[in-house]
Amino acid sequence: MADSNRQAGRKNSIPAQALVCLLAIATPCGSAFGAAPSAGFFPASYIGEFDSNLLWEFLLGGIALVSFLVAIGIWVLTALRGARSAQSRRCAFISSALNTLNQGVMITNAQKRVVFCNDRFLEMYGLSRAEISSAMTGRELLELRRARGLLNLTVEEFSKLARRPEGVVTELPDGRSVLSKIFRLPNGGTIGTHEDCTEQRQLSRKLASTTKFLESVLDSVPVCVAAKNIEDGRYIFANRAFERFSRFSRDHIVGKRADEIFSPETARSIEAADQAALTAPEGYQRSEYVVERGDDKRVLSSNRVVARNENNKPEFLIALFDDVTDRRSLSRELENTKKFLELVVDNIPVSLIVERVSDGRYLLANRSAETILNRRREDATGLTAADIFNPREAKLIIARDEAAIKKRGLLTEEHPISTKDGLRLFLTRRMTVLDETGEPQYLIKTHEDVTDRRQTESRMAHMAYHDGLTDLPNRAAFLQALAQMIEACAGTDEEFAVLCVDLDGLKEINDVFGHATGDKLLIEVAGRIQACARGGVVARLSGDEFGLIIDGKQPEAGKALAEKLAQTLSDEFVIDGKSVRTGVTTGISVFPHNGSDAASLLANSGAALFRAKQKSRGSISVFEPEMDQQIRDRRVLHQDLSMAIRNGELSLYYQPQAAAGPTIGTSKVIGFEALARWIHPVRGFVSPGDFIPLAEESGLIVEMGVWILREACREAASWPVPMQIAVNLSPAQFMHGDVVSLVHSILLETGLAPDRLELEITEGVLIEDFDRGLALLRRLKALGVRISMDDFGSGYSSLSYLQAFPFDKIKIDRTFVMNLGRNPQSAAIVRAVIDLGHGLEMSIVAEGVETQEQLGFLADEGCDAVQGYLLGKPQPIGHYAALVGRSAANGVETERKLASA
C-alpha cells in the first residue's frame, strides 16, 4: 500500500516538475526580450551586432529542455514498468489465492472469453492449461467437457440450470458429483464455481435412507408412537399404529394439537400425561389413562420421554402408548383361569409336587399328593424328601430327583412308596424346569398309583401267552418256545421232536355230557400231559389239540413220549361222578430233518397228525416226505374254495348278539354277527376251521372278505328293524388293497348307515404293521363305523393296542368264558377285562356263552352283551326273521330266492 501511495505521489509530481522546467527556460528568454527596447530592435539576419550571451542562453535552454523531455520519458517508462510489476504481483496474488481454493473457479469477461481457470477446476475435469487458449469462450469450454463425457447436459441446459441459486449437479463418469453455479459480474463477465459434492450427496442419500428406514421401522412398530413440539404442543410425527388407533390419517394429525384432534376429555387426559412427563425429574413418565375413541372408551398404557437439545433444554416430547383395554380384560380372564386351573390341579387324581432345585424343598402339592406325603399338603410345603419319607425311601427319591435334574428332561420310572394303605407301586414322572439362563430351577413330579393296573396287566400278559381254560401256554407261546429251541440247537448235533396231540372224542363228550364236562376233561388232560412231559414244553394249540417239545434221540424219544401219553390218557377220568374215557392221536416232526423253523416243524407235525387220524384214532405218526400229498390235497381244497367264491357257493349265517340279562328272556337281541359257511358240492359242509385258515394262508380271504362285507351290508340294509351287523375283517385285508375305500364304497352301494356296521378285527391287524394298521383303523372310524377287538386276551399285546386306539367294543375270547362258574381264575380274568373295558369307556361282548350260569355271571359283572349257543346258533337270517322285522314266510322266501340265485 505504501508503494502504491508513493507511485501515486510520483504521478502527481510530474506536472509540477514540468512546470518548473518550463519556467526555468522561459526566464532567460523573457529577460532577453525585455531588454530589447533599451537596446533597440534588430532583425535576425543582423549578425554583426548579435549578442553572444543570448546565444549561450538559447543553447543552455535547449539543453535543459531536452534533458527535461528525456527525464519525462525515463519517468514514464519507470512508471509503466512499476505499474506492470504491481499488476503482475496483484494477478499472481489473486491467482495463488484462487488456486488454493477447494472449489473450481472459471471466469469469463464481458466478451464471454475465458480469462481464468484455477488449478482445482482443471484437476476436477482432467484438463490442462494448454487446452484452454486465450481466445476460448465459456461455451467452447463447455463443449470440450461435453465431448469428453464430463457434462451430461446440453450447454444450454447447463447454463440455464447453473444460474439458479441452487445450481446444478452433474455426474462425472468416475462416479463423482459436481455442484456448479454461475454468477454474473458487474463488468458483464461471469464467474463459475464448481464443488465436488460426491461425499455430501452420498451422506445425503444415506441420511435419506436412514430416515426412511427409521420411519419404516417406526411405522412397523405395533405400539403407537407420536412426537410433538413442547413449545406449541403440536404433533410433528405419528406412526401407522397411531393412525390405526386414532382412526385419523397422519396428515390430519401432524401440525395439530391434541385438543384439535380428540374430544375435550381425551385431550385433557393427554395434556395431563404430557405435563406429568415434563415435570418428572427422570425425564420420562409411565401412566395409564382413559381416552374416547368413537363410542367406546379405551385404556392406554403410556411411556412419555422428554427429548432435549444440545443446550439440555426440553424440545420434543415422545409418547409411546398401547391399547391395553383387551389386555386388562384378558388379565382378568387369566386370573379367573388361574383360579380354575388351581381348582383343576387340586382335584386331578394324579399326585403333583413341585420342588425347588436349589434346596430340594417342596413348594406346591395338590390334594392327591397327600396320599404319598402321609400328611396335609399345607404341612408338606417347605419340607424336603428327607423330612417326609423314611431314610431308605428318601435316599432313593433324592437320588432319582438328582438324576432327573442332571438329565434336564423327562425321567419316568416306577418304584414303591409306603402309604397308609401299605406299600404301593407308583409311576413317577420327573420334569426339570429351567430358568432364563438355562439352569435347573424347579422339579415337577407326578405320582400315579399303578398298583392295580400293573396287577391287571400282569394277569393280561399271562392271558396273552396262556390258555384261559387249562392255564397252559397257548399257540403263540409255543411257537416262541419252539423258535428258542431251534436257535439253541442250530449248528449242533442236537435233535428234538415236536408233538401235535389231538384229544379223541371231545366233541362226543361235549354233546353227551355238555361243554362243562368237556372243559373239566380238558383241564384233567392238561394236568396228565404235563406230568408225562416231566417239565418239558406243553401247550394247548387249539380246542382239542396240544403241542409238546421233547429232546433226545429222535424219533425214538418222541415216540416213547407219545406212547406214554396214550397210556396215561387211556385211563378213565371221573368228572362230577361220571366216568369219562378218551384217547389221543399224535403226529411227530423232528428237528432238523423235518424243518428248520418253528412254522415248518409245527406244520409238519400237523401233517403227521392228519395222517395219523386217517389211519386210526389213537395212532402215532412221524412225518415222512410222502405226506406232502396232504399238502396237495390242501391245494385242491384251495382251488375248490377259489371256485366256490367265484360261483357263489358260500353263504352267510347270522348269530345273534344280545344285551346281557340275568336270563335268556331278559337278554334282548341287539344285532348279529355274519359268519361265512361253505357247502361243497362233493364234500358237503366244510368247517370254517378248515377253509378260513386256508383262505388266509392263500390270500383268498381278501376276495372272500369283499363278498362277505358286501353281502352282510346288503342284507342288513333290508331289515325293517335297524339292528347292528358285525363283520370280521382279516389282517390280510388290511395288508392288501384299500380297505377304507372298500368299506366306504360298499356302504354307499348298499345304503347301510355307517353306525350300524361293526368291524371286528384281531390284533394281527396291528402286529404286521402297527403304524399303517393304526392309520387305517382311524380312517375307518372316521367313516362312522364301529370298531371292535375280537378274541381279546388270546394274542400278544392286546393291552398296548387298547392304549393306542379307542376301540368301541372288546370281545372276550370264548376260552375265558367256557370255565366261568368252575374256575375262579377264569372268573377273575373275565371280571378284570370287564372292568378294564369300562374304565376305557368301551363296551364288552362275551363270546361262547352256552350255559345259564355263564350268562348270569356275566350279567352280574356288568358285561354289556353276550353271544353264544345259549342265545342262538349261527343260522340263515330266515330263522331270525321276526327279530329283524320280517315275517317268517318272508324270511323263508328270501332264503329260497338267495339259494336259487
Automatic annotation (TrEMBL):
SMART domains: EAL, GGDEF, PAC, PAS
Keywords: Membrane, Transmembrane, Transmembrane helix
Domain PAS: 90-132, 210-281
Residue intervals of the PAC domain: 411-462
Domain EAL stretches: 634-888
Name used for this protein in its record: EAL domain-containing protein
Domain GGDEF: 494-625
Residues spanning the membrane: 58-80
Xref: NCBIfam families: GGDEF (TIGR00254), sensory_box (TIGR00229)
Species annotation: Bradyrhizobium archetypum
